[in-house]
Amino acid sequence: MNDVLYFAFDDGKDETGKELWRTDGTADGTYLVKDIREGSNGYDIDEFVIYDNHIYFGARNESGDYSELWKSDGTEEGTVQISNLNLNPRYMTVFNDEIYFNGRNEDGDRLVWKSDGTGEGTAVVGDSVYVDGEFFAFGDHLYFKGYSVAHGIELWRTDGTDEGTGLVKDIRPGSSSSSEIKGIPEATRGCRSNCYPTFLFLFHPIHGGCTIMYFTDLVIHSGVIENALCSSGFTSVNMGHDADIACFF
To answer: How many CB atoms are located within 10 Å of the residue 185 CB?
Structure first.
């Protein structure tokens, strides 16, 4: 941020432990930002994300059982704790001008949370589903792997509101879970250059195996490119020029 790299570091001097540091690439410009957990026991600083000209991260101070949401403008006085809820935030991402993350509630369940950078603006989004893992943006929604008693583990999405948080599809109907659902933010394979992959999820509702599905914004041709049961167990399919689902591998 602003040509400065922020990172968690223990200088090994038994004075501060693992804390928030910054560097501009020079010796003089490399130094401790703040001793969040005073003494040599600092730890649990991670999940860095940039939002509104601040670095947001998870950190645990001496009074907490779990890490909390913090932010820093790169100065000691500008490094402050936002939450005091034992959130243990994970997989932070910026979406629709807010920070979303996988966080704990008071019962220890992991739910979708969002924050505008203030304590008052940090809240649960849709408490009807438990979240596991990271989020991936596609259009006007964040997609994630969610668990509910009625559907097991399936693909869910949220637009940041309780009403806009829901199941996308019960891929393996009933309370049984799809085998695995994952995301990937990388260039697609097997599509033309105008494909725009956002995430994939892995599942096989019958055999319990895994298939990778890429979502794209635009594809050119439709039809099966490779046989669906090739020796590697993968297939590549383009669904049509106006389809959102473009490739299976």
So the answer is: 11
